[in-house]
Amino acid sequence: MNRLLLKLAMMVMVATLLYSIPGATQASPTTKKAASVRITQGPEIERVDPDFAIIRWTSNNPGGSPEHFGVVHYGTSPKELGQTAKSPIRLNPSHSDTVFRVRMDDLKPGTTYYYTVDSMESNGTGDGVKSPVKQFTTEHSTTTTR
């Protein structure tokens, strides 16, 4: 048990040292923005439950600031997508594609939702990409009583 605790303490010390070195935590530099950003795969439902859903899509790397957000605009009418969910992501400048995943919470069971996706830099500047409106239906609630 003591050897395990010693090994764990050493791992924590190494991790602390790595994250305290400025170069180890340096933010990725801003990269050249893509001439045009397009969705190359999806958007598609990764998971749907009675009260939440996860949407996933891939685009070419938009470039710009390394901090980005995947954004889903959604609602129960295809003409009224007034709700928004977003998820932060850090771009990898050496990757040609970026996978976005956004979780939408507090959904109603057995309800059809319509959505469209886009992405933006952390300062709110959009990447200029937007999907067509798609739809999904949440699962019916499976609560049981005893």
How would you describe this protein?
With 146 residues, the protein is mainly beta. It is built from 1 helix and 7 strands, in the order αβββββββ. The protein is globular. About 5% of the residues have low confidence.
Strand adjacency order, main sheet: 4-3-6-7
Radius of gyration: 20 Å
What is the chains' assembly state? single chain
Helices and strands, in N-to-C order?
HEEEEEEE
- How many strand units? 7
Distance between the termini: 43 Å
Write out the CATH superfamily name of the domain at 39-137. Immunoglobulins
Q: Which CATH class of the domain at 39-137?
A: Mainly Beta
Q: Any low-confidence stretches, pLDDT <50, length ≥5? A: 20-27
Q: What's the tally of helices?
A: 1
CATH structural fold name of the domain at 39-137: Immunoglobulin-like
- The residue-averaged pLDDT reads 83
Q: Which CATH architecture of the domain at 39-137 is right?
A: Sandwich
Kindly summarize this structure in a few lines.
The protein has 146 residues and is mainly beta. 13% of the residues lie in helices and 39% in strands. It has a domain at 39-137: Sandwich (Immunoglobulin-like), CATH 2.60.40.
Task: Note the main attributes of this structure.
single chain, 146 residues, mainly beta, Immunoglobulin-like, 4-stranded antiparallel sheet, 3-stranded antiparallel sheet, 1 helix, globular
Topology record:
Blueprint: H1 2-20, E1 39-48, E2 53-60, E3 67-75, E4 83-90, E5 97-104, E6 112-121, E7 134-137
Antiparallel strand pairs: 1-2, 2-5, 3-4, 3-6, 6-7
